[in-house]
Write a structure and sequence with these properties.
The chain is of the alpha/beta class and 249 residues long. The chain is 28% helix and 30% strand.
Length: 249
């Protein structure tokens, strides 16, 4: 598999930007005894069709397949609750997930979706902190050019004169935010278990049969297979990301 220099740099940059400050984070979390979980990631399967234009730029055709019915955010909430209940008292919180889905965000690598205003509007269920899962963007993840990026959950397809690749991605952050001051106590970008030197973000090769040229042409079989593969990718990355945050084995 061809790995572009820009992708390597992006992965290194993402790993550098999202490394938690371990000592200070441990101190901040020492007073956190209870948490509430907010997951707003699984509204859209982002489709990124990357086609070469000349020798300098790519053109990207983004589309969205609505997937809120897949229940990915509920699965994330359940997984986090199970993993963290030994360390924190996990309490339910009432929130409008759609509000968090549609927050403004930046395509800059590592940029955090602003959530303070939305968290302040919630009725605190008696917790010390919120654990918030929201999408993030990563540039240069599918092609060699700066105009190619991925965000949230999705499938990307890159075609060139000599090859075609199809990848699935889950790009997000997990943040622990103080429920009183709304200061971010710890943050980590989505990770897979590390192999070798480079950090691994959740971008994996998948069979080209999962790719559909347009959202409206995606078949039921493609959707079912994409749901199964994406759910597995999210669950694996959640577990690994919690490990990087020293919140799970």
């Amino acid at each position: 598999m061809r790995i572009s220099k820009s992708l390597v740099l992006a992965l290194m940059l993402a790993g550098f930007l999202l490394q938690p400050l371990a000592a200070s984070a441990a101190d901040d979390l020492a007073n956190v005894k209870s948490v509430a979980i907010i997951s707003a990631l699984g509204d859209c399967l982002n489709m990124r069709d990357v086609e070469p234009v000349g020798t300098i730029f790519n053109t990207v055709h983004p589309e969205c397949v609505p997937i809120e019915s897949w229940g990915i955010d509920d699965l994330i909430t359940q997984q986090l609750t199970t993993a963290l209940s030994g360390r924190f008292a996990v309490k339910p919180v009432n929130y409008n997930r759609a509000v968090f889905y549609h927050l403004p965000w930046s395509p800059i690598s590592g940029a955090q979706v602003p959530v303070e205003k939305q968290l302040r509007a919630l009725t605190n269920p008696g917790v010390d902190a919120y654990i918030v899962v929201t999408r993030m963007a990563l540039p240069n993840a599918l092609g060699d050019d700066n105009n190619t990026y991925v965000d949230g959950l999705g499938i990307g397809h890159e075609s060139s004169l000599f090859s075609q690749t199809t990848k699935m991605f889950a790009i997000y952050t997990i943040r622990i935010i103080d429920a009183q001051t709304f200061k971010t106590l710890e943050t980590e970008g989505a990770r897979l278990p590390k192999t070798g030197f480079l950090p691994r973000v959740p971008i994996v090769d998948v069979d080209k049969s999962l790719w559909s040229p347009s959202a409206r042409d995606m078949t039921d079989d493609q959707e079912a297979k994409a749901r199964e593969r994406l759910t597995a990718l999210v669950q694996e990355s959640i577990g690994s990301t919690l490990h990087y945050m020293d919140l799970a084995p």
